[in-house]
TrEMBL record:
Organism from which the protein derives: Pedobacter zeae
GO biological process: 'de novo' L-methionine biosynthetic process; homocysteine biosynthetic process; transsulfuration
N6-(pyridoxal phosphate)lysine: modified positions: K206
Pathway(s) where this gene product acts: Amino-acid biosynthesis; L-methionine biosynthesis via de novo pathway; L-homocysteine from O-succinyl-L-homoserine: step 1/1
UniProt keyword annotations, A-Z: Amino-acid biosynthesis, Methionine biosynthesis, Pyridoxal phosphate, Transferase
GO cellular component, one term: cytoplasm
EC top class named in words: transferase
Entry keyword annotation includes Transferase: yes
Protein name: O-succinylhomoserine sulfhydrylase
GO molecular function, one term: pyridoxal phosphate binding
Known role: Catalyzes the formation of L-homocysteine from O-succinyl-L-homoserine (OSHS) and hydrogen sulfide.
Subunit structure, interactors included: Homotetramer.
């Protein structure tokens, strides 16, 4: 039975059963594969026949994970990587060459910033940052050698939003590749390809896994574009392990129900903190006070599980709050079943200068809250006692 419903696709898309007729997909822990004869080996290596050659290229577990994500994102093909940053590096590496220019949102993950400033800049790739809240400035940054637009929306950790439909039109007008990091939204809440994105990227370590267990990433797009990604990845080797692919594919079966609870809890936390006298600022896409609230409502199903706050009193107050938390974990990860607090200025975004952090709204009092699946009363109680 075919279905267009997210939950059914995520649960029922499965690799072909073996002769054992297993109900749940097995883990294919094999590095290589056997060929029937020399001709089949030649045909597979020549891409004249589809099949598995080597697990750095493909594996039944990674193929199942990719197939599910393609259906959920509305993509034609994909490639699974060992981490989310491997997905971003592989995408940049596959499409950017010496002399190319990139326009990126200023609000990007710290390691993405490091790639642009310390790696690809050494390889002759230049870039300009644009602000998510100033779409009128984006077109002026496009140059004759601009090849790609890269954006996180919602951004990490500022939770800024940009109109994907606007970016899709801009990319089409200038014949540019639009790449969207869709990690915070997941395919359940947002499908960038529907709005004109050519490639959607995920750190599957986050909500796709959702339980803080394994690392993974994925790149999704057209068959033509993914063929270029695969060409680069086969030789650079950022492949996802079969075991992690199996975990991530199984995790997709509960993504919808988990995201519903993450979003429900996060909205309640955001609404509570917005009225708290010790909180200077709350950023959450589905709060009417969010500057891009209307855009978020247009392109996202719900607001996601991340709430970013600024505590009154700067870094000392932020540290006091974090040290006062009893149930929340202090961790650099996010999107776990367990609620997590992170101080971006001294961890995930510590390699940025203070000026760069201020430009994307990361103050010394900024704290990123990844709201988990615990009972909302316990989440709010922990926050309240830590702020006391």
């Amino acid at each position: 039975m075919k279905s267009e419903n997210f939950e059914t696709i995520a649960i029922r898309t499965q690799t072909e059963r073996s002769l054992h007729k297993e109900h749940s997909s097995p883990i294919y822990l094999t590095s290589s594969y056997k060929f029937e004869d020399a001709e089949e080996m030649r045909a597979l290596f020549a891409n004249e026949k589809e099949g598995n050659v080597y697990s750095r290229y493909s594996n039944p577990n990674t193929s199942e994970f990719i197939d599910k994500m393609c259906l959920l994102e509305g993509a034609e093909d994909g490639f699974a990587t060992a981490t989310g940053m491997a997905a971003i590096f592989t995408t940049f590496g596959a499409f950017l060459k010496n002399g190319d220019h990139l326009v990126s949102s200023r609000s990007v993950f710290g390691s993405t910033h490091q790639l642009l400033t310390n790696v690809f800049s050494n390889w002759g790739v230049t870039f300009d940052y644009a602000d998510l809240d100033k779409p009128q400035d984006w077109e002026a940054l496009i140059k004759p050698n601009t090849k790609m637009i890269f954006v996180e929306t919602p951004s990490n950790p500022g939770i800024d939003i940009i109109d994907l439909e606007f970016l899709g039109g801009l990319a089409k007008k200038h014949n540019l590749l639009l790449v969207v990091d869709n990690c915070f939204a997941t395919p359940y809440l947002q499908q960038p390809i529907k709005y004109g994105a050519h490639i959607s990227i995920h750190s599957a370590t986050k909500y796709i896994d959702g339980q803080g267990r394994v690392l993974g990433g994925i790149i999704l797009g057209t068959k033509e574009l993914i063929a270029e990604v695969v060409g680069f990845a086969r030789h650079s080797g950022p492949a996802l392990s079969p075991f992690n692919a199996w975990i991530l594919s199984k995790s997709l079966e509960t993504l919808a129900i988990r995201m519903d609870r993450h979003c429900e809890n996060a909205l309640k936390v955001a609404e509570y903190l917005e009225k708290h006298p010790k909180i200077k600022l709350v950023k959450y896409p589905f709060l009417p006070s969010h500057p891009q609230y209307e855009i978020a409502k247009k392109q996202m199903k719900q607001g996601g599980g991340i709430v970013t706050i600024v505590v009154q009193g700067g870094i000392d107050a932020a540290r006091k709050f974090m040290d006062g938390l009893k149930m929340f974990s202090i961790s650099a990860n996010l999107a776990d079943t367990r609620s997590i607090a992170t101080h971006p200025a001294t961890s995930t975004h510590s390699k940025l200068t203070e000026e760069q952090r201020n430009e994307v709204g990361i103050e010394q009092g900024s704290i990123r809250l990844s709201i988990g699946l615990e009972h909302i009363n316990d989440i709010l109680a922990d926050i309240e006692q830590a702020l006391a």
